[in-house]
């Protein structure tokens, strides 16, 4: 039996459920290796103005995480738009180098991890404006001053920054949607009127439109430029791995679970393995201290795991492990159809070698005997039940066998107990015989001496009812006279009816 609790964490904080962006799906970047490149196009550089906007739902609240970047510090640095410590940061270069960057950043921390925000930068010939959630925000130069960015021959990269040595870092982790680049400075009205709905693609000055409604994963995922322009460049994946990047809905991403798979922990299997699906986690930490996708356990209890699915996105799953019924069973061996003069010998055993414990055998007349082997003279017909409890007092197993005692040659038997419950064991009162019976008479009386049944047929039975009405539990009297193989027999006494 297992019980689970699923929590969603980011860094050391709990993830809040994401607000919906305005479209169905979003792009997921893992913050470790994923990014996209769009071939250089002058329409992606500053012409008479530049606007970059997107919906983002970041996982990280630390560092500087790139949204887009068109730069290389060898005279090719144009601009970057990023999230730095929950602030929106726009950086550009007037000369193409990185030694004197111009960094314009929102004053306040406005971008909350785990929540969708619309962000935009508008760079006009005279000023720069930063928008978060459709509102122009207070911003300041933390270095440099206003100017115009150069025209760069570098590709436009999504979700990464290129270093001087052509290596990459500052990866973006999280969801991104509706990325748009305009070769003009949009007004606040333009941004607010368009941010909540998809575009048609033929809007004036629209140079790049990625609606993130594409299909595929990893290297097979191309983000098609939906801007209706001549020779549009599409975004191609770089640094793909472990099934990322991919397209997902925000709802699916928010409810994504990492279930723990558990082997059964049983009395005969005192160790088990807990495991996770192998989907390329960034890190794994079990409550046992293990850091791989599996961990071993030897006792019941609560076990939890924290996994980092993408950079800064942590999921935890807890599972309650209890002892499960084992697949062990017991069986009974022995001859079960006997003559009344024979000895009943039954032997009980476990189907799993090496499991020790205590056996108890219960008889049809409510008697019992300890041990796995039963040797019994004068046995009666009925169900014999063996119960096994292992030495750890963990498993309790049962098995049953129906024993039929028949009259030996020239012998006969009369039941002392009947249980007319339809299980075909001791269901009837009758004469059991082996031979030839003649001149048979049977009379049955209730406890008040009233005759309730009679028969002159030795094969006619009494099923414990009168006129189809079942009789109550109690003692009944009988008289029986017959000749067996020519020898006169007279019997009488009482028998019990038990329901």
Give keywords.
mainly beta; 2 helices; 8-stranded antiparallel β-sheet; Immunoglobulin-like; rod-shaped; Jelly Rolls; 43 strands; 499 residues; ConA-like_dom_sf
Describe the structure.
The protein is mostly beta strands and 499 residues long. The chain folds into four domains: 17-252, Jelly Rolls (Sandwich); 257-321, Immunoglobulin-like (Sandwich); 330-406, Immunoglobulins (Immunoglobulin-like); 412-497, Sandwich (Immunoglobulin-like). Helices cover 2% and strands 45% of the residues. The chain has two helices and 43 strands. Strands 3, 5, 10, 11, 12, 17, 18 and 20 form an eight-stranded antiparallel sheet that branches. Strands 13-9-8-7-6-14-4-19 form an eight-stranded antiparallel sheet, with no helix packed on it. A hairpin with a 5-residue loop joins strand 30 and strand 31. The longest helix has 7 residues, at 188-194. The radius of gyration is 42 Å and the shape is rod-shaped. The chain starts with a strand and ends with a strand. One of its GO terms (biological process) is carbohydrate metabolic process. This is T9SS type B sorting domain-containing protein.
Average pLDDT level: 91
Radius of gyration: 42 Å
Terminal CA distance? 37 Å
**Count of DSSP-assigned helices:** 2
Q: Can you tell me the CATH topology of the largest domain?
A: Jelly Rolls
Compute the number of structural domains: 4
Strand content: over 45%
Overall shape: it is: rod-shaped
Using DSSP, what is the number of strands? 43
Entry summary:
By secondary structure, the protein is an all-beta fold. It has 4 domains: 236 residues, Sandwich (Jelly Rolls); 65 residues, Immunoglobulin-like (Sandwich), CATH 2.60.40; 77 residues, Sandwich (Immunoglobulin-like); 86 residues, Immunoglobulin-like (Sandwich). A hairpin with a 2-residue loop joins strand 1 and strand 2.
């Amino acid at each position: 039996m297992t019980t689970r609790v699923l929590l969603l964490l980011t860094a050391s904080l709990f993830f809040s459920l994401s607000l919906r962006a305005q479209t169905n799906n979003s792009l997921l970047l893992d913050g470790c290796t994923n990014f996209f490149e769009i071939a250089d196009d002058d329409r992606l550089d500053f012409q008479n103005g530049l606007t970059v906007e997107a919906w983002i739902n970041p996982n990280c609240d630390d560092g500087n995480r790139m949204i887009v970047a068109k730069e290389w510090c060898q005279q090719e640095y144009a601009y970057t738009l990023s999230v730095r410590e929950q602030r929106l940061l726009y950086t550009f270069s007037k000369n193409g180098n990185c030694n004197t960057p111009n960094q314009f950043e929102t004053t306040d921390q406005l971008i909350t991890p785990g929540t969708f925000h619309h962000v935009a930068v508008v760079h006009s010939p005279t000023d720069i404006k930063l928008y978060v959630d459709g509102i122009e925000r207070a911003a300041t130069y933390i270095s440099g001053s206003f100017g115009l960015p150069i025209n760069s021959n570098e590709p436009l990269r999504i979700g990464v920054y290129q270093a001087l040595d052509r290596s990459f870092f500052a990866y973006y982790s999280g969801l991104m949607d509706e990325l748009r680049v305009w070769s003009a400075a949009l007004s606040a009205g333009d941004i607010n009127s368009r941010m909540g709905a998809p575009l048609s693609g033929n809007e004036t000055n629209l140079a790049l439109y990625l609606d993130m409604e594409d299909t595929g994963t990893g290297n097979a995922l191309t983000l098609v430029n939906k801007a209706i322009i001549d020779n549009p460049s599409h975004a191609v994946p770089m640094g793909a791995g472990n099934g990322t990047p991919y397209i997902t809905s925000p709802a699916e991403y928010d409810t994504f679970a990492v279930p723990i798979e558990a082997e059964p922990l049983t009395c005969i299997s005192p160790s088990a393995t807990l495991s996770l699906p192998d989907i390329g986690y960034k890190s794994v930490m079990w409550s046992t201290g293990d850091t791989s996708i599996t961990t071993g356990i030897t006792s019941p209890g609560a076990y939890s795991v924290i996994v980092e699915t993408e950079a800064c996105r942590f999921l935890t799953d807890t599972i309650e492990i209890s002892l499960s019924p084992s697949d062990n069973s017991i069986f009974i061996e022995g001859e079960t159809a006997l003559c009344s003069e024979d000895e009943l010998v039954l032997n009980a055993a476990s189907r799993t070698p090496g499991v020790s414990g205590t056996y108890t055998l219960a008889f049809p007349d409510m008697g019992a005997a300890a041990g796995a082997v039963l040797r019994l003279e004068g046995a009666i017909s009925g169900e014999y039940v063996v119960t096994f409890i292992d030495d750890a007092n963990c498993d309790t197993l049962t098995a049953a066998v129906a024993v039929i005692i028949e009259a030996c040659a020239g012998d006969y038997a009369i039941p002392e107990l009947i249980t007319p419950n339809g299980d075909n064991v001791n269901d009837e009162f009758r004469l059991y015989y082996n031979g030839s019976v003649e001149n048979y008479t049977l009379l049955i009386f209730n406890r008040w001496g009233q005759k309730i049944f009679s028969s002159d047929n030795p094969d006619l039975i009494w099923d414990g009812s009168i006129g189809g009405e079942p009789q109550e539990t109690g003692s009944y009297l009988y008289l029986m006279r017959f000749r067996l193989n020519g020898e006169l027999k007279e019997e009488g006494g009482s028998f019990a009816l038990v329901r």
